[in-house]
Design a protein that fits this description.
two-stranded antiparallel sheet, mainly alpha, single chain, globular, 2% strand, 66% helix
Length: 300
């Protein structure tokens, strides 16, 4: 929008940016924080509880012909599918808005858990507990990522920290709940109840989430190949890859006193290596900041 302040040879055009009138760090932004906390709680928190189901699958011969590697890959699909759909979800969020893809994810996530309760073969478990749950997590979580940056400036780190804690809290709650439900009701009803609870919580969160895309008009790209040329991006990717420990399941030694000794050694070593990549990324960012200080750094 352009306003003419005066007329004549000295006329001045003043461009009024609608985003300049937005308020940050208060108001409805905190409602979005609560909603994003619930999204993390009911997506990554739920898939973090897969270890409870994995333990049950390994102790009971529910799927003839299934191997420990099958169950490991089913859990890995939760994370892989969630990340692989990111470009598609980003594109759909730009075209349709934030909430439609999230609602699709809410339904898909719940469908994955409920259908897993009826699975009788390994491929059905791959499709339900693995793929559908993972796709549901991706469609539900990914559109929520840019929300807080549109509502917070000075308190953005605090807001992101609160919402990120949702995945940890959810992991604890759903792990304890799943173990208890499996013992008291059954595996099937544990999966169904988890799906129903996830649907209710995520649906409420999606209803409350509100973006500012129409005003801020952020640039969004489903896939940016230029990022693959950046050393910092590869450090982050190596850290993410090193943080995965699914392969450790193949190092189990059933029948021995310490069945999970080698998986624990492997996982610990991998995390140390992954931390080295993250530390190198921190060092590079610190050097970049020293070479190009911001205005606030200069003022200090």
């Amino acid at each position: 929008m352009t306003a003419v302040v005066s007329e004549g040879p000295h006329a001045e055009d003043v461009t009024q940016d609608p985003a300049a009138h937005l308020t940050f760090d208060r108001g409805y932004g905190w409602v979005c924080v609560a909603a994003c906390f619930v999204v993390n709680f009911s997506t990554w928190g739920i898939v973090s509880a897969y270890g409870v189901y994995l333990s049950y699958y390994l102790r009971h011969d529910l799927f003839p012909g299934a191997t420990p590697r099958d169950f490991a890959f089913i859990g890995g699909l939760n994370f892989a599918a969630a990340v692989l759909v990111a470009p598609l979800v980003t594109y759909l969020a730009r075209v349709w808005g934030t909430q439609p893809p999230m609602l699709f994810g809410v339904v898909t996530l719940a469908t994955g858990f409920v259908s897993a309760s009826f699975a009788i073969t390994t491929w059905q478990l791959y499709l339900s507990h693995g793929t559908l749950v993972g796709v549901g997590v991706g469609f539900t979580y990914i559109p929520s990522i840019p929300i807080l940056s549109q509502w917070f400036a000075k308190k953005r780190s605090l807001a992101n920290g609160i919402t990120s804690a949702g995945s940890g809290v959810g992991g604890i709650v759903f792990s304890l709940a799943a173990a208890r439900m499996i013992e008291s009701v059954s595996l099937a009803w544990s999966l169904r109840i988890t799906g129903i609870v996830a649907f209710i919580l995520n649906f409420l969160a999606v209803v409350l989430i509100k973006d500012r895309n129409k005003v801020i008009k952020p640039s969004q790209r489903p896939f940016d190949t230029k990022l693959l040329r950046q050393y910092n991006v590869w450090l982050l990717l190596m850290w993410s890859f090193g943080s995965s420990e699914v392969i450790a399941l193949n190092l189990r030694r059933p029948g021995r006193d310490r069945v999970y000794l080698y998986p624990q050694i492997f996982a610990g070593t991998v995390y140390i290596v992954a931390s080295a990549f993250l530390f190198q990324l921190y060092r590079r960012k610190k050097k970049e900041k020293a070479r190009h200080p911001t205005d606030s750094d200069v003022a200090l």
